[in-house]
Structure prediction request, 101 residues.
Amino acid sequence: MTAVRTVLGGEAYVYPTLVPLLYQKRAEDEKPRGETEALSSREIEVLRYIALGYTQKEIGEKLFIRGKTVDTYKARIQKKLNMEKRSQLVRYALEQKIISL
Prediction:
């Protein structure tokens, strides 16, 4: 009933047990992009090829690893840098001088 009264009063209502989860999610979203754990030398190699536009298969062939391993490295890189898109990785690689124009 409290939720109904609150909403009818023009305010937002959030179930009390969800509040800590919302704060946790917000803290994760506010984590600065690119200012996280350092990348390993192998992750930097994979990132370089990703940023240069190589496919998963091509990267695997160049580094003598399986395509699935390339995907694992890419996922780790994205998690460490808090980035989701390939374009973000390209920009990061340019800014960090991992690749150049």
